[in-house]
Amino acid sequence: MFETSLSAGQVTQALYETFVMLGWSLFIGGLWGLVQGTVMVLIRDNGVRPNVALFRILTPIINTLRSVPFIILLIALIPITKFIVGTSIGTMAAVVPLSLYIGPYIGRLVETSLLEVGSGIIETARSLGASTWQIVWHFLLPDARQSLVFNLTTATIGLLGATTMAGAVGAGGIGDLAISYGYQRFDKGAVVLTVLILIAIVQAIQFTGEFIAKRLA
Question: Which residues in 25-114 belong to E strands, given as ranges?
Fold first, then answer.
């Protein structure tokens, strides 16, 4: 067994803060990603509503957002974060950069999933007189749902890692415990405990994602 100066209350509070960051940023980033991915599939040159000019404008913007390391994004967005939530420190303040970080990433994953849908399904939808919205809602998304769940599971695990980095700059959560106690106070037990907690959360997310995906098959 290992000893740590962390109390059960501190661990519980850190878990709560982690899930708040994870939940809100996943919700906002998920909506962003769903819209982004769907639009990019629709407007590509062989899409339902091709718009090559817009596609070429959006592609480098998305790639640029995806290429910025989270820790740099966290710092660069401090003025915007402070304007939106009134502070640049704390759990809710971390939601802003986390959402901007994960949104474009989920968007690319959604795009990949939707591109896996066979062209025959889209042609069938068109022959039935379906509108663009109906094609997306009744044909594209349902057919790609298993792939979407798998990709969302991957994104959620990546986002969990980002929340631990956010903890290093005052956002709270499990990452904050690892830094404040494990690193700054040389509490090896705190490091082991936080790592075990993160492993357990990742396993739970992966298991849940695989279970849902299999049910949707």
Answer: none
pTM: 0.90
67-75: long-range contacts (C-beta < 8 A, 24 or more apart)?
A: 68/101, 70/97, 70/98, 70/101, 70/162, 70/165, 70/166, 71/165, 71/168, 73/97, 73/100, 73/101, 74/165, 74/166, 74/169, 75/169
Q: Of all residues in the chain, what percent are helix, strand and coil, respectively (each to 5)?
A: 80, 0, 20
Q: Residues 130-167: pLDDT tens digits? A: 888 999 999 999 999 999 999 999 999 999 989 988 87
Three-state secondary structure call for residue 131: coil
DSSP string, 99-116: HHHHHHHHHHHHHHHHHT
